[in-house]
């Protein structure tokens, strides 16, 4: 990123290097996702891709979109806003926050359901949904499936077989810069979206311009759509390269082991876990609290020891501690978290 910024300050900006870097980054991201290069676009935060879907589909009055009110607001507000077009949001009901099963989704589908919009994992509880099963259910009913993938992309594999749209900011598990985001659109669905933003360097999907046979020429070379801030693209490419070098499977294994280690330290002392017990629904997020010590007190104790975790709230203002270790965290660091928390009791 620094190299790109320095070049922008002194270069004549012929963009040759940037165009090559954009294509290299798209190739790396496609490899990480397991999809075609032409199915990857670069956007801003997660909400950019989600809004591209919400504002790009041709909605009809009476259409329904199935979503979850306790998802992160970026994956709620775009669907609520569709009420102005006569679209009805249908909210899923769960027994605990984020615990969305295929059966719950199926019970919400009707003949008017146009889209199901869910997160790959809940930002508070870390509950990871069965994307394959939900996606297959949607496909079988002729319903589109949009996924907010920021809570798992870079930590867990994202099966794309039955996902039509996926949006994810790069600043979390992908280890990329803030402001960068990935927008996946299945090739067979690209004609369904009407681009909400058009420009010489900005469109919301890599193939929209080409499909409409509109070309932008500069010095005899066609601009590749999807580029917007080259230093950010450089950072995203470096992040994807790092994740591929370590290996997605190894990253998942490591994150699971670190989370289990912390859970094992805390469970005997009466900590309550909001994160799921079932291995298949666990993500990289471990959320917990203790019934006798307020979560904000535990958070402050960790902060005093230079340990950064999140304090998260569910509706009703109940607060929880959220720990999200990545593959680079050490066993010693996880033990330190446990020691500080236990000393605070």
Shape: globular
Strand content: 15-25%
Mean pLDDT: 90
Main β-sheet, spatial strand arrangement = 1-7-6-5-4-2-3
Major sheet description: 7 strands, mixed
Number of helices: 11
Order of helices and strands: HHEHEHEHEHEEEHEEHHEEHEEH
Task: Give a brief description.
This protein is of the alpha/beta class. Helix content is 36%, strand content 16%. It has helices at 2-10, 16-33, 46-56, 77-80, 102-108, 131-140, 208-211, 230-246, 248-266, 295-304, 331-344; strands at residues 40-43, 64-67, 88-91, 113-119, 144-148, 165-169, 181-185, 217-218, 221-222, 272-273, 286-289, 310-314, 318-323.
What features would you describe in this structure?
By secondary structure, the chain is α/β, with parallel strands linked by helices. The chain contains 11 helices and 13 strands. The strands form 3 sheets. Strands 1-7-6-5-4-2-3 form a 7-stranded mixed β-sheet, with helices on both faces. Strand 4, helix 6 and strand 5 form a beta-alpha-beta unit. Helix 9 packs parallel to helix 11. The longest helix has 19 residues. The N and C termini lie far apart (44 Å). 42% of the residues are buried. About 8% of the residues have low confidence.
Note the main attributes of this structure.
alpha/beta; 345 residues; 36% helix; single chain; seven-stranded mixed sheet
Question: What are the SSEs and their pairings?
Answer:
Layout: H1 2-10, H2 16-33, E1 40-43, H3 46-56, E2 64-67, H4 77-80, E3 88-91, H5 102-108, E4 113-119, H6 131-140, E5 144-148, E6 165-169, E7 181-185, H7 208-211, E8 217-218, E9 221-222, H8 230-246, H9 248-266, E10 272-273, E11 286-289, H10 295-304, E12 310-314, E13 318-323, H11 331-344
Parallel strand pairs: 2-3, 2-4, 4-5, 5-6
Antiparallel strand pairs: 1-7, 6-7, 8-9, 10-11, 11-13, 12-13
Helix pairs in contact: 2-8, 9-11, 10-11
């Amino acid at each position: 990123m620094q190299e790109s910024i320095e070049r922008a300050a002194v270069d004549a900006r012929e963009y040759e290097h940037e165009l090559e870097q954009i294509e290299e980054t798209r190739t790396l991201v496609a490899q990480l996702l397991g999809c075609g290069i032409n199915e990857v676009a670069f956007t801003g935060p997660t909400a950019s891709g989600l809004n591209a879907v919400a504002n790009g589909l041709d909605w009809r009055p009476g259409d329904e979109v199935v979503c979850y009110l306790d998802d992160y607001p970026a994956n709620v507000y775009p669907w609520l806003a569709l009420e102005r077009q006569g679209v009805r949001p249908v909210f899923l009901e769960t027994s605990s926050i984020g615990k969305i099963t295929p059966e719950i989704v199926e019970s919400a589908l009707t003949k008017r359901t146009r889209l199901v919009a869910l997160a790959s994992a809940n930002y508070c509880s870390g509950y990871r949904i069965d994307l394959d099963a939900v996606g297959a259910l949607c496909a079988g009913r002729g319903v589109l499936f949009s996924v907010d993938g920021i809570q798992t992309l870079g930590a867990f594999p994202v099966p794309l077989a039955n996902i039509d749209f996926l949006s994810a900011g790069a600043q979390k598990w992908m280890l990329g810069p803030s402001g960068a985001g990935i927008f996946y659109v299945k090739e067979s669905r690209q004609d369904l979206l009407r681009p909400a933003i058009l420009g010489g360097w900005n469109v919301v999907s890599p193939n929209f311009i080409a499909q409409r046979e509109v070309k932008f020429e500069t010095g005899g070379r066609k601009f590749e759509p999807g580029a917007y801030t080259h230093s950010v693209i450089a950072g995203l490419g470096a992040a994807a390269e790092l994740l591929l070098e370590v290996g997605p499977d190894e990253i998942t294994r490591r994150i699971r082991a670190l989370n289990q280690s912390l859970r094992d330290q805390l469970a005997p002392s009466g900590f309550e876990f909001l994160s799921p017990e079932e291995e298949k629904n666990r993500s990289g997020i471990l959320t917990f609290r203790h019934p006798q010590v307020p979560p904000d007190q535990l958070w402050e104790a960790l902060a005093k020891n230079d340990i950064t975790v999140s304090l998260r709230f569910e509706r009703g203002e109940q607060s929880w501690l959220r720990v999200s270790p990545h593959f680079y965290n050490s066993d010693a660091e996880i033990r330190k978290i446990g020691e500080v928390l236990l000393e605070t009791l």
